[in-house]
Amino acid sequence: MTESGKPILYSYFRSSCSWRVRIALALKSIDYETIPINLIKDGGQQFSEEFQALNPMKQVPALKIDGITIGQSLAIIEYLEETRPTPRLLPQDPKKRAHVRMISDLIASGIQPLQNLSVLKQVGQENQLTWAQKAITSGFNALEQILQSTAGRYCVGDEVSMADLCLVPQVANAERFKVDLTPYPTISRINKTLLALEAFQVSHPCRQPDTPPELRA
Amino acid sequence: MTESGKPILYSYFRSSCSWRVRIALALKSIDYETIPINLIKDGGQQFSEEFQALNPMKQVPALKIDGITIGQSLAIIEYLEETRPTPRLLPQDPKKRAHVRMISDLIASGIQPLQNLSVLKQVGQENQLTWAQKAITSGFNALEQILQSTAGRYCVGDEVSMADLCLVPQVANAERFKVDLTPYPTISRINKTLLALEAFQVSHPCRQPDTPPELRA
Asked: A119: helix, coil or strand?
């Protein structure tokens, strides 16, 4: 927390996991400060001793709040949900909550980790695009099918949930990796609907304190 | 659910994510039936049309319970926690719950997906061991550090939590991939303590209906 008591988000404008948390903070109207951690500059600022002490995983996001520092985007969102429950990001019904968490984990464990920066570095420059596309299409094939039975206006019914906070940043990654989205009409429709909401707009990678001028919009 | 109303767990004896759920079911004394999905036989039974209809991610575990089918191990465990709260697998204090979920996600998103079967296939036979070791040591370096401030007898304080359900199966994977565990005394100590508990023993890969005779113990 800052001296003013505001939570501090360690974030990188383009990190899809950071974006998930930024949407949650925006939806819940939580005022916070951003400390940008540039994952590319200086060989990666996440590897600095100072940041490692904060988050030993050397990843963004991390959130300093209420006297603790939390890493892992979904753990952060669940904490915000438990301590700042309005508006809720998990439905009341346990079965619907299970659907929300299943979709969130499908993206957060089943897709994103396989196409993140550190893995793509290991895969080597010439294989990166194919590798990332395979991870995303494989996950999106499953997700499109699951959404047939869970989706309303959004991923699960008609209320914005944690699943939607995972969906939009993952679709942005898919676009960066030139994944053809035509086989995913439900994913595309929900993504478009969500991007019209203010919380998704103010948290967008093109509007962050560390967004480079040429990428701002 | 079966005709008898028991939940059905689609599981593979050696799958670390299935083991997480088996521990939860054992701790909560939930009676269930296992349908083994052999991830290697017949080119992978998870790719059958029948199983894909159940879990489009083509992964184990999946749990049929209360009329729904849930995929993703942590989503399953959170559902069990909400509907069968005793004994609890998440502490009461929101900050401790955040630590439990952070450690769980560190393993479930930050380590396991990078060393699972489908990724190792893509990496190629000659690189598999190095790749898996790198993913595990990188995650364990962070985890060992985090445990210095969260652990008591177990990962978070002195009560068994979801984090412990993730830890033990991940250590078993580390051993399979010949990771040197001497740099991780806290992880090793907690793992050993947990393995002495009955719920971790009955759910162990060496004691499942689909464990091959030569691996039974």
From this structure: helix
pLDDT in tens, B15-25: 999 999 999 99
Domain region containing A165: 94-200
Residues B122, B64 share a domain = no
Cβ <8 Å between B122 and A134: yes
Whether residue A71 contacts residue A59, with contact meaning beta carbons closer than 8 Å, is answered with yes
Structural domain includes residue B54: yes
Q: Is residue B40 one of the residues assigned to a domain?
A: yes
pLDDT, position A4 = 62
Residues of B with CB under 8 A from a CB of A: 55-59, 66-68, 70-76, 78-79, 82-83, 94-95, 97-99, 101-102, 104-106, 108-110, 112-114, 119, 122, 131, 134, 139, 141-143, 145-146
How do residues A125-143 score in pLDDT, each as one tens digit? 899 999 999 999 999 999 9
Strands B8-11 and A33-36, bridge-based pairing: unpaired
Residues of B in contact with A155 (CB under 8 A): none
- CATH number of residue A61's parent domain: 3.40.30.10
Spatial separation of the C-alpha atoms in residues A74 and B4, rounded to whole Å? 36
Are B70 and A98 a contacting pair, CB within 8 Å?
yes
Query: Can you give the pLDDT at residue B159?
Result: 98
Please name which of A1, A165, A140, A205 lies closest in space to residue A73, comparing C-alpha atoms.
A165
- Of B87, B121, B138, which residue constitutes the final position of a domain? B87
